[in-house]
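Hi there,

I know you've been waiting on this one. I reran it after we fixed the sequence typo, so this is the corrected version. Both the input and the resulting structure follow.
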Amino acid sequence: MPVFRLSTDNIDFPHPSQAHESGLLAVGGDLSAERLINAYSNGIFPWNSHGEILQWWSPIARLLLYRREVHISKSMRSFIRQKNILVTFDNYFSEVLKSCANIERKGQIGTWLHKDLEEALITLHELGLAHSVEVFHQSELVGGLYGISIGRMFCGESMFARESNMSKIALIYLCQLLDNLNYQFIDCQQITPHLISMGAKPVKGDTFFNLLEINKQCSLNQGLWKEYIH
């Protein structure tokens, strides 16, 4: 499959089914809010290191987590009860971005969450489309995640934990919120053992593409989170 080159004056993407087997679909373009919304609506996301040409990815094999299928073990329920934990939403978006960018990850050198992408995500947050979950333990931010809300789909972007289980707690609370807001699923983007252990399941490309088309019939719901959590 060829890798498509995007222009800056057209926000359209090739269909994600045309991605290379690696998941790389296109390069170029920009990080405008309009392009990002179009990308996430079609199961496409930016992923490149600082200084590299902008890259757009859409892995054919996707991992989805349905809001009511998140796995909460008995030990995790007990852990949450015993710890002095506070979970908030959208109160520290920038701090969550920086934490996701700076947390050390096995086998990773540098970060794909560079300054230009951070600024673009903050714009989406100001538009009511990018959201964060923050987990505090003894008044310290010790875990969290962020992602993009598109219709009734939440595109999970990244998570971090400075203490054991804190990213899991962020995901559990996110699923509870999404259930209350009648979201359908989380697009986890890439298959990882950690997310599978939390209840996420791989789906074939055609299944995912069909879900995307259904989701496009839903409104973007920019004000839905704000109305519920405040």
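Quick highlight: The chain has a mean pLDDT of 92.

Best,
R. S.
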